[in-house]
Amino acid sequence: MTRLVAFLRAVNVGGRTVKMDALRAAFEALAFTRVETFIASGNVVFDSKARDLAALERKIEAQLLSHFGFEIDTFVRPLAEIAALAAHPAFDADTVRTRTQVVGFLRAPPSPEAMQALAALSTDADRLHLQGRELFWHSSNSQADSNFSNAAFERALKMRSTFRGIASLRKLVAKHGD
User: Fold this and answer.
1) How many CB atoms lie within 10 A of CB 137?
2) What is the CATH number of the domain that holds 61?
3) How far apart are CA 44 and CA 122, in angstroms?
């Protein structure tokens, strides 16, 4: 069994309300064990024997569509990988100047064209760093004061994503790390 984290896109925003007990039940119906939600923003920690994470994401998405009646993009990562991301040195080097530290989860590494579009979004205030399927965003502004958004990143990358603050990821790892 592997301890995994499912990051769900656009849960409990824009009128797409999902109760955490119903979310846990939807995951348990898929025969996952030790299912726990972490804050009410679409983070589910669970155990699974699955090896193919892309297939697992599709399976979870189908279950959530059936259970809640709307599409919920799902990004699954091993908890050990989240722990490594939370400790990634890209965050530590800029801590003094950075007010916003966020990780964006992608389904696949971006294409070269998407990388060029992403590079065009980077500024002195908003710095972007890609590592595999994760996009690190450091900003000297707060998220509310930044010109960037999940939608802007998705337009540049031409793919769906979901973002989590580094503080939330560190808390998730501290609480659920085995």
Assistant:
1) 23
2) 3.30.70.1280
3) 31
